[in-house]
Amino acid sequence: MSHRDLEVDDVFAPSGGESHRSSLTEEMTIYLATLLNNNNSSTNAAKGFLNKPSGNHPGVPAGYSYLFQLAGHDLVFSSLVPRAFDDIGGRSQNLRQEKLGLETLFGGGPIVCPHAFDMNHRDGTHRLRLGKFRPAGRMADDRLAPAADLPRGRYSADAPEADGPFTDVLIPDSRNDDNNILAQLTAFFHAVYNKLVTQTATVPMPGTQAQIPPHHRSRVARHATTRIYRRILRHDLLPRIMPANVLSLFDDTPNLEPLGRDAAETNDLFAYGIARMAHSMVRPEYMLNNGVAGHDLGEVDLRKIINHSSLHEPGMVPTPIDWKIDWDLFFTAPDAPLADNFNWAIRFGPHTADGMTLATAGKPTKESYPAGTAMRDLVREKWVGLGRVQDLIAASAAALTAQGIAVPFEAATHYDRVAATGMAALDAAVRSGHKPPMSDTDKTTITANLPLVTFLALEAQIDGSNGATYGPLGGLILGAAFGPVFADDTPMTTDDHIAVALEQATYGPAPIRDMPTLITATEIT
To answer: Which residues pair with 126 in a beta bridge?
Structure first.
């Protein structure tokens, strides 16, 4: 779910290599991206396409779109851009040492990523850096509380202290500054860790009255933060975006292997299928707050939210105080009262919000390509070479059957049913003047060879309660990628027991399992 640009070679060249197994031509891929870009009317709130609660489904408040993006960055950090796979004759490696271990926040720690940390010289603990806001409506070096933005800096080799844009974001994973909502959510988790690490000075070692040794405090605070984060992913995020029957398979079957794919292939299925399809959750505009410091922004266009980052428009950061996010407009507990302008995510499906069709979100890699994330995602999947969706469906059905688990779809007909129904509806939804000409024969070829990201979008609409959740295949990929959150949370090691004691001393006796509770209990100063 990254918005960064990428320079590429022609992935559709005949010499593309063994990994490029799709039968779609460049013209067919452009046609498919154009359909996705122009099927954006469904993202309009007036069309009733917001992902609100329905039946037993709790709905998807918009904040979970960005929590999901943070988790995606925590799952996969590639050693190579896809274009280099064939250039070096190998595959990209996922550099994450631990899945969902918050490496996206902490990197390799203060030794490897010293720019991300401040050290407390009194006790040797390290806190994640935070930045304050700038005044609204003007560029100034004045800073305003609270410290709820990412830490940013400016540097010039000729004049290190010179005025200039804040081009550097001081975090281990710069993708977390891809847009301003994600940036402020990342800063919030910085504050959670900092609250825990501060509390370590008062928490005794379990079973003793001895203090936690200073050189252990940062490590156990990170461990406690990770335990809370994984619990929220399992109990708050996944029930909102994963089909309930698929979620129960992972709860009921420890170490479930549902795809018939190895770890590296599963990473690719998540990164270039599940995560890319989640772009359809993004709203065209957001209410960041209901007014701050006498300023009322109203709804903010997605394009501006993407631009407010050191990556895209460093002259617009640090974040102005009137952009400070009120998280009560982005996260809610079930049945809680809501503001009239609460931000719900968009339902999953084959569509693209207006701001995601611009070059800011996805720069065209060739002049003839549509701008935005849709074409970029299709091209990236072709680079990676995920293979035919039909083969993945067959492999998943075989893997589940071998483990004695009922397959949550009819394997023999699942692809054809979803592809034929979904593509017919998508093609009909976009008027002739808004898509390039394409013969019926070529349309048939597209339908028979859908990229995974497109198939998952259609599956969500057809089998995911009209886009309320991923469909069954999408749910299996998601569960396989999120494997660590299904592990037993019972404390086993000394660090586990210290982390439990630390969380209880900081947040109370009940384990935190959802974002609204964590937000309420974490003061930002």
So the answer is: 119
